[in-house]
Amino acid sequence: MVTLKSALAKPYAKWVTKGMHLRALDPVKAQQRVLSDLLT
Q1: Residues of the chain above pLDDT 70, percent
Q2: Which of 16, 17, 19, 25 has its CA 20 to 30 A from that of 10?
Q3: Distance of CA 37 to the CA centre of its chain
Q4: Are 30 and 23 in contact, with CB atoms under 8 Å apart?
Q5: What is the helix (H) or strand (E) element at residue 30, kind and residue range?
Q6: Residue 16 pLDDT more than 90?
Q7: Distance of CA 26 to CAs 19, 20, 31, 32, Å?
Q8: Rg of the chain's alpha carbons, rounded to an integer?
Q9: pTM, entire model
């Protein structure tokens, strides 16, 4: 039987990995976004 935790783990990991890859493809944009978040 699949538990709720294990059922949600793979989609969450995929979502996190996708976000990391998108930020890695455009580091300048990611850095600017972090800086603007820190300043506001």
Answers
A1: 100
A2: 25
A3: 16
A4: yes
A5: helix 27-39
A6: yes
A7: 11, 10, 9, 10
A8: 15
A9: 0.61
3-state DSSP assignment of residue 6: helix
* One-letter amino acid for residue 32 of the chain: Q
In angstroms, rounded to a whole number, what is the distance separating the alpha carbons of residues 20 and 8?
19
The single residue listed with the structure tokens 């989609």 is: 11
The one-letter code for the residue type at 17 is T
9-27 burial, b at 16+ Cβ within 10 Å, e below that, comes to: eeeeeeeeeeeeeeeeeee
Using DSSP, state whether 1 is helix, strand or coil.
Answer: coil
Give residue 24's pLDDT.
93
| Distance separating alpha carbons of residues 9 and 24, to the nearest angstrom | 22
Both structure tokens of 14: 């995929």
